[in-house]
Design brief:
Blueprint lengths: L2 H5 L9 E4 L5 H12 L3 E6 L4 H14 L3 E5 L5 H11 L4 E4 L14 H29 L2 E6 L12 H20 L5 E8 L5 H14 L3 H9 L11 H11 L11 E4 L7
Parallel strand pairs: 1-2, 1-4, 2-3, 4-5, 5-6, 6-7
Helix pairs in contact: 2-9, 4-5, 5-6, 7-8
Length: 267
């Protein structure tokens, strides 16, 4: 039965519980908002445990009329990744979004940064998926969406750990899809290019000063040099793509990547 037919009054994803890692800002928050807009109950997550984190959940619940909770979990620690799923009460939709970045030449790359990036950007997804799949199998429905990157399909210098982790996410996605192929569970990866998040927005004035350019020029010629559209993707677009992958129309889409990168990986 189409989810929309059964739960149309609550939205296309009414009655489903979604866990989104790294979701108190940026892409993760944008994805969580679109899932809530579609009617899903949502669990927000990050490594902090501030009043504003819980207020964010309360505000989202009031805005969309769904249940929203915030659960602290450090995605660099496997036991906390698994505990997140347990504390959430399981999930129908799992979005692995948590990630960090560090830029340095390989010979200068700090070992602790390598370990942290691999743990948060890759190993956390292994742990959350392993914890979530039994419940998805038992309920007879599940969607796993891993937020990879254009760097999961191509590379850039000085980003060895990030590129390795995101390539690993793409491989993990394919493996999970094959292991769940005969179940009503799908697993896909979204590969964004540059996305306009508050963190990226905050970098624009410094780039303007450094290059002596206006806002539009520095965006097109510096920040989006590798993105042929010369436009940022938005968090709403990524959230919409996640919602699509959770829809009935995407039931036979599994084990693949969807690039939201303005043509970057077409080059």
């Amino acid at each position: 039965m189409d989810i929309a037919d059964k739960d149309g009054a609550r939205g296309a994803l009414g009655g489903k519980r979604a866990v989104v890692t790294g979701s108190n800002s940026g892409i993760g928050l944008g994805v969580a908002r679109e899932l809530a807009r579609a009617g899903a109950d949502v669990v927000l997550n990050s490594f902090t445990d501030r009043d504003e984190d819980h207020q964010l959940a309360a505000d989202m619940a009031a805005e969309f009329g769904v249940t929203v909770r915030y659960i602290k979990a450090d995605m660099s620690k496997g036991d906390e990744c698994r505990a997140l799923i347990e504390q959430a009460g399981g999930c129908d939709i799992l979005v692995n979004n948590a990630g960090i970045q560090h830029v340095a030449a390989i010979e200068d790359f700090p070992v602790e940064k390598w370990d942290a990036i691999i743990a948060i950007n890759l190993s956390s997804a292994f742990h959350t998926i392993a914890a979530a799949l039994p419940g998805m199998r038992a309920s007879g429905w599940g969607r796993v969406v891993n937020i990879a990157s254009a760097h999961g399909l191509t590379a850039s210098p000085f980003k060895s750990a990030y590129v390795a982790a995101k390539h690993g996410i793409v491989g993990l996605t394919k493996t999970v899809a094959l292991e769940t192929a005969e179940a009503p569970i799908t697993c896909n990866a979204i590969c964004p290019g540059y996305v306009l998040t508050p963190l990226v927005e905050a970098q624009i004035p410094d780039q303007m000063k450094t290059h002596g350019m206006g806002r539009d020029e520095v965006i097109r010629k510096v920040m989006l040099e590798r993105q042929p559209s010369r436009e940022f993707a938005t968090v709403e677009q990524l959230g919409g793509t996640v919602v699509f992958l959770c829809s009935a129309a995407a039931e036979q889409i599994t084990g693949t990547t969807i690039s939201v990168d303005g043509g970057w990986t077409a080059l």
